[in-house]
Amino acid sequence: MGGALAEKLLGWYDAHGRALPFRGTKDPYRIWLSEIMLQQTRTETVASYYSNFLARFPDVFALASAREEDVLKCWEGLGYYSRARNLHKAAQTVVSQYGGVFPADYDALRALPGVGDYTAAAIGSIAFDLPLPALDGNLTRVLSRVHGIREDVGIPSVHRELLVRAREDMPQKRCGDFNQALMDLGATICVPGTPDCERCPLCALCDAYEQGDAELLPVRSAGKPPQVVHLAVTVTTCGGKTLLYRRKETLLKGLWVFPLLENARTAEDVARGMEGLGVKTDYVLYLGHARHVFTHRIWEMDIWHCHAAAPVSKGGLWATSEEMNALPMPTAVRAAKEKTLDILQRVHYILPLSPCGGIYDEKLTEVYRNVLLSKTAAAYAESWQGAHRHQFSEAFWREQTPAHMEMILRVHMQAGHDVLCLLMRDEVAGVMVLDRAENEIISLYIRPRFQNQGLGRAALTLAEGDILDPRRDMRIAALQDNPVAQHLYRAVGFSKLAETRVLNAERGVIETDLLRLAEK
User: Fold this and answer.
1) Are 286 and 304 spatial neighbours (Cβ–Cβ below 8 Å)?
2) CATH class, range 352-516
3) Per CATH, the architecture of 227-346 is what?
4) pLDDT tens across 101-130, in order?
5) What is the assigned CATH class of domain 2-216?
6) CA-based angle 476:477:483, to the nearest 5?
7) Which residue out of 35, 362, 382, 464 is catalytically annotated?
8) Which of 12, 48, 139, 517 could make a disulfide contact with 201, Cβ separation 3.0–4.6 Å?
9) Is 406 a catalytic residue?
């Protein structure tokens, strides 16, 4: 069958072979790079990484002299990071032992770090036209169907039989094209499940096509289910920085990750785990869930935001968002990384300190609710004084301490009002108090340095859409001599003037109610 099979297959490949960026070269460096990238990774994914990697490391000398961290950063997102570490080591071996020239010998190629039987055969056949079958998943599937091999291909003796058949089928020339033709046939026509036999150039030679059982081949025994690991991914911030650790474990070795706490299910578990790392937390907030599937392991991850009292820890690196973006980080923690960037750079979020009818699933415990209440009271005092400092006496202001403001907030909570903590980046930025019974925004205060960044508008939007009743008139109050607040409230629909109240006749402090009319 060998000659006829190779002739038909190469004729088909010449007409229908895939155009890929790593095809059409005899440069062993480029072939080796592409084959390492293609291990357990889709061809479509590899295409863009291949070009970017070559731009950064155009030859084996550039790769060998690079820092491992730079190699990992360029590999970021491809997964299976041991490939990148072995790639770096193999480049150093080629430079140190072979003067930068890849050996045209199977055993020498096979001895390079990260190069197995398949990869050595692929490099040898494509770069040097050595008659070596590159028996990957595609070739195994095609050859088991063509030759009617109906035993478990995972058994060593069956695997050896496939290699013998592949060597018999291989032509004397164009050995690399033959391997790549079988790869393309397996990727496009002789696919897993039900193949497109009518378009296959080998159907007249195929035993499985004749027997009608191609969809059952190759035979493989069921593998072990992956191990499920429950982790708390702790996004720990302080002063515009986040805490990262470089992995020493085999899985994701050399990559930077957030603190990972196994089997930490509650805020208290997370706080205790962080204390073990030398981090004292002000508060711990639940941010959501993520899942990542490795080959033999599944990470089920709860993502938590921990705010540290000070940027102190046992080891690790406190990094800015720019520094974090420059470090190699695995896809497994991508969701946590995105939330970290939101916290450090852009987005605010709002947390209820008293029940708000199920707004957000934030899993905030009483311990951290009290910590946040204290910090919110301090922000309340600062922002309230910033808004009204010129309107009351010094004696009055001396009484408006954070402790006094905390007492006021607790009175609101006891009265059934909704007290919300407004956070921006990793700091408490303000407070909002709502009365659902009266459909009223009692107060909205934002610390001066967090103003004019969209937080007030976001808080009002939440109040109107999620807490207060849009079918009733809504009320909010603003000082007549506070044009900034007046402008904001009017911009979101509070327009009709209602009654006024004199707060300080001596200094002419007058508060005016604004209404937002109910939606009809």
Assistant:
1) yes
2) alpha beta
3) Alpha-Beta Complex (3.90)
4) 999 999 999 999 999 999 999 999 999 999
5) mainly alpha
6) 115
7) 35
8) 12
9) no
